[in-house]
UniProtKB/TrEMBL annotation:
Organism: Sphingopyxis macrogoltabida (Sphingomonas macrogoltabidus)
Occurrences of domain Peptidase M16 N-terminal (ranges): 90-221
Name of the featured protein: Peptidase M16
All residue ranges annotated as the Peptidase M16 C-terminal domain in the record: 242-416, 713-890
Cleavable signal peptide: 1-33
Record family assignment: Belongs to the peptidase M16 family.
């Protein structure tokens, strides 16, 4: 299948009035973002010896995306370049090397990934770690703008440069090329980065990784894919030395295995010239190695395997495994791939329908994919309810029916409508596609041997392909993707099953009972929705100072913030904020906030359940998403002008005529209970579940429910909690997008303006947020995972609200500086952690409370004391000494660039302007962000550090393996350091 760009939230945003500082950027001519369907300048005459060769399309009849320019250097380096102005001033660079973990020998396992880490440390021409600082000065954020990824089949280096100039683009190309061609691979560098990779391996270890590794080994027996995880092994990484890693680099890092992709706000001819300048003289070292044999599925390997893993939920993986075949990406190949996708969608619709109705499984899905140029596999993933045998039988029955009986044309059309609606959406949003996404799509296409085409080409191809999707054709495709020479099954279970692998094999060998429970067609239209009321009247309309937006207030008290703009042609974003969100619940009161995300939406509207709503909105751009904010509940959607009227009816109907189906609540309860034992399986799981509750002094709004609370959930309790919250409290509607062709005031009046006036919610005492009590010795929580895994964190309370927006911005810079120092000492120098994190949280929904600065990391227990020592040193130094001008600039610059890029899109402004119709401070704070960040000084950083990083208010907590104490961890650290440390005091435990 040829790739077309995916949707994005970033766009050229002509939103702010000329008085704003960002106007010059945001009012760039629309043509700067017009990237699709126009020919880029050829690099043939400007790139010297490079030739403009359409190497991606050799043998293919896929319509070529003419916005790309392709070339091949004499040494074999291939490239693809194109102009793109989204976001303005950014250039995205990708360097793809055709080498991954499947290219390693047994002794080299993990070398491709280790080499990726070493490459980003620097090259033979720049000091270790200096490239990171240089790119920071260019506004690059490490980890998002600069990153790398190793997969079984490729290693990709990523760099997104904001606010480019000829000088920093040239310098960046020079640095990146030097890293790839001549990385600094010294024994010291290998030792340091091996520690980081070992930390990554340790932090990812646990039951899920063991299950994943064992499942891959079983399903892909006979192939490298079964035992070549990119992370490697402790043994192979421990044996890595500079000479062996260098040998791996020299063998596989060759110009003929490199593809350089550049997309951005510049001249493609200049991009091609820079590629030739920095890659043109690259010469391979030694003979070209033979391509590894990835192997084929072994039909003689065992069929069934039961994996016993304590405290894990029962789960099944049923795989139909076929050998991978290399295919040229043609229109016929694309037709086959779309038909395969349709066949999967038909089965998944039926599987989900059975789960919604209360079947033998909680979740079941099928997916057919081509994995790592190794296998063509169709995988069914099943989470049973109770006994696994009926669940396996039921899923096999649905698959058997798909292979026996053709689908109806109506069923086919329903799924095809969804695909076509998505492709049309992509086409309409093509001018807003960010360069980074286009670059990533190109790299992905190269990796899997496919092409790219324009969004229009994709729409045109699918329309012609759709006509061939007849019931008989779909039956043949279903038979192809659900049949295989090798079928294997894996059962994950917390306790051994009677009969072991033999019982699983017998269940698979039993004849599949055809389950013909196809989704019945439902006649539904929006006229069936209960009447909302007479259209409301507008009480006032005013322009919001500083913004191209208007505030509309209706007689019933509903307010709306509307920005009618062409930022995203053909798209309208909706966000309905109602009630008071987290503030509707007292800090110490039981609540069911945790149930809303799934069950509230799935419980239906008026006469319709979830199935009816799915069919009603089929092929249309109508959605409904739910979220909880501090000061409001939110219903959101991404729609288009032609669908907006019905979209708004659906959202308003959820508030006016909610339905209370019981099945989604029951399914949610069972889902929570099924996964409950995973809550303390790893340090990460413990943090994900408990951290917000701990930081807020065990505030019930952020404390996860215990098992008894989950078991006590009933549909009646669910309704009693949510019904008054849907019916009460203020409503604010945000409408941002392309509305020139519709009367949005009329749509608002007939939907939210027509609602009856809403009663205010009774005060719940939830206006303030506490912070964890100060401790002098870290508290301790426990996990049931690996003995070598731990986590540590420390935090200080700050503040919150809208009264001090400049301090909020200053704390973001302070957190970035703290994070940079922690990264350098804990990861880059000592290899003790893969990803230390420092985060400043400053909520606007709670005045003068709720904020904190959090420092945390996953670690080995022996490094707990080291973490606290480093964090203490950094905090004390930030209090005692002003930061240097360079350090301030290196950390504030990337934040400003992130804001500048995000501010070109509607999503950014909708987020910042939540609540602006009721509090003018919201818009003022949104408009001042860039200026506030630019105004942060070294004195501000030191002032905020003195104000907040005080030991007297500090809270700390460590997560240790069950049975270990802080004293044990300290002793392990002392032993590892070859010295002695005093035992830690007894700590409070959780």
């Amino acid at each position: 299948m040829s790739y077309s760009p995916a949707s994005t939230t970033l766009s050229l945003f002509r939103f702010l009035l000329p008085a704003c500082a960002a106007t010059a950027l945001l009012l760039a001519p629309p043509a700067a973002a017009q990237t699709g369907g126009t020919s880029a300048p050829s690099a043939k005459t400007t790139a010297g010896t490079a030739k403009a060769d359409d190497w991606l399309y050799v043998g293919s009849d896929i319509p070529r995306d003419t916005a790309w320019t392709f070339g091949v250097l004499p040494n074999g380096v291939r490239y693809a370049v194109r102009n793109n102005g989204v976001p303005p001033g950014q250039v995205s660079i990708r360097v793809r090397m055709d080498v991954g973990s499947l290219f390693e020998t047994e002794k080299e396992r993990g070398f491709a990934h280790l080499l990726e880490h070493l490459t980003f440390r620097g090259s033979e021409h720049i000091p270790d770690g200096e490239a990171k600082r240089i790119w920071q000065r260019f506004g690059v954020t490490f980890g998002s703008d600069s990153n790398a990824q190793t997969t079984p089949t490729q290693t990709v280096y990523q760099l997104d440069l904001p606010s480019i100039t000829p000088a920093n683009l040239d310098e960046s190309m020079k640095l990146l090329a030097g890293m790839v061609r001549e990385p600094r691979i010294s024994d010291a560098a290998v030792t340091a980065e091996r520690g980081v990779v070992m930390s990554e391996l340790r932090e990812s270890d646990g039951p899920q990784k063991r299950i994943s590794d064992a499942t891959s080994a079983h399903l892909f027996a006979g192939q490298l894919l079964g035992d070549r995880s990119p992370i490697g092994t402790v043994e192979s990484l421990g044996a890595a030395r500079a000479d062996t890693v260098t040998a791996f680099h020299d063998r596989w890092y060759r110009p003929d295995r490199a593809v350089v992709v550049i997309v951005g706000d510049g001249d493609p001819a200049e991009f091609a010239r820079l590629i030739e300048k920095y890659y043109g003289d690259w010469r391979a070292s030694g003979p070209n190695p033979a391509q590894p044999d990835f192997g084929k599925p072994n039909p003689k390997a065992p069929v069934a395997r039961a994996i016993v893993e304590a405290n894990q939920p029962v789960a099944l993986s049923l795989a139909m495994v076929r050998p991978w075949k290399k295919r040229i990406d043609t229109v016929e190949n694309t037709r086959r791939l779309y038909m395969e996708f349709l066949a999967q969608a038909l089965v998944n619709r039926r599987l989900e329908n059975r789960a919604r109705a209360g079947g033998s499984y909680l979740v079941a899905t099928v997916e057919q994919e081509y994995v790592s140029r190794s296998v063509d596999v169709t995988m069914a993933q099943i989470v049973p309810l109770g006994d696994w045998k009926p669940a396996l039988a039921d899923v096999r029955g649905v698959i058997a029916d798909a292979m026996k009986t053709p689908p109806s044309q109506a069923d086919i059309d329903r799924e095809a409508n969804e695909i076509e609606a998505f492709l049309r959406k992509e086409l309409e949003n093509a001018r807003n596609e960010p360069g980074a996404r286009l670059a990533d799509d190109m790299v992905r296409a190269v990796d899997i041997g496919e092409t790219v085409t324009s969004p229009q080409g994709q729409v045109d191809m699918f329309r012609s392909i759709r006509a061939a999707a007849t019931p008989q054709a779909m039956l043949e495709i279903s038979r192809a993707i659900f049949s295989a020479p090798v079928t294997r099954v894996v059962l994950t279970t917390p306790t051994a099953i009677d009969g072991g692998d033999g019982a699983l094999l017998a269940a698979l060998a039993a004849p599949a009972l055809v389950r013909d429970d196809r989704l019945a067609a439902i006649k539904a239209d929006f006229s069936q929705l209960p009447a909302i009321g007479a259209p409301g009247t507008i009480a006032s309309t005013t322009l919001v100072p500083g913004l191209r937006a208007e505030r509309i207030e209706f007689a019933n008290g509903v307010t709306a913030l509307v920005s009618n703009n062409k930022v995203e042609p053909g798209k309208v974003r909706v966000n309905v904020r109602f009630g008071t969100g987290n503030r509707s619940v007292a800090a110490d009161a039981p609540n069911l906030l945790w149930t809303g995300d799934y069950a509230l939406i799935a419980s239906g509207i008026g006469p319709w359940g979830q199935n009816e709503i799915d069919q009603l909105t089929n092929g249309r751009q109508i959605q409904m998403n739910f979220a909880i904010d501090d000061d409001a509940f939110e219903l959101s959607a991404e729609s288009k002008p032609a669908d907006l009227a019905d979209q708004m009816k659906l959202l308003a109907g959820k508030l006016a005529s909610p339905r209370w189906d019981t099945a989604p609540v029951d399914r949610l309860r069972v889902g929570f209970l099924t996964g409950y034992d995973l809550n303390d399986a790893t340090p990460n799981a413990v943090l994900d579940r408990n951290l917000r509750g701990w930081l807020s002094g065990n505030d019930a709004r952020w404390s996860a429910p215990d098992k008894a609370e989950i078991e006590a959930l009933t549909p009646a309790k669910f309704r009693a909690f949510w019904e008054p919250r849907l019916a009460s409290g203020p409503i604010e509607v945000q409408l941002f997008g392309d509305m020139a062709s519709i009367d949005y005031r009329k749509i608002l009046a007939e939907t939210f303006g027509a609602l009856s006036p809403r009663a205010p919610l009774a005060p719940a005492g939830g206006q303030k947020v506490a912070f964890a009590k100060h401790v002098t010795v870290p508290e301790v929580a426990y996990h049931r995972g690996e003995q070598g895994q731990a986590a540590a964190m420390t935090a200080w309370p700050t503040s919150g609200g809208l009264a001090s927006p400049r301090d909020a911005r200053g704390l973001e810079v302070l957190a970035a500086i703290f994070n940079d120092r922690l990264f350098d000492r804990l990861r880059a120098e000592q290899g003790a952690s893969y990803g230390p994190v420092v985060d400043s949280h400053w909520p606007t929904g709670f005045d003068n409370s709720g904020g904190y600065l959090l420092v945390g990391s996953l670690l080995a227990p022996k490094d707990i004391d080291r973490f606290y020592g480093i964090a203490k040193d950094i905090a004390a130094d930030l209090v005692a000494n002003p930061v240097s001008a360079d350090e301030l600039a290196r950390n504030a610059g990337p934040i400003r660039e992130q804001v500048a890029r995000a501010s070109t899109g509607n999503v950014y402004w909708m987020f910042l302007l939540e609540g602006a119709t009721r509090d003018p401070r919201v818009a003022a704070a949104a408009l001042s962000i860039q200026d506030d960040i630019a105004a942060v000084t070294a004195a501000d950083i030191q002032r905020l550090a003195k104000l907040y990083l005080t030991p007297a208010r500090q809270w700390s907590l460590a997560i240790l393996p069950k049975g270990m104490t802080l004293a044990d961890a300290s002793a392990a650290g002392a032993a590892a350091a070859g010295g002695s440390q005093a035992s830690a005091p007894v700590a409070a435990s959780r």
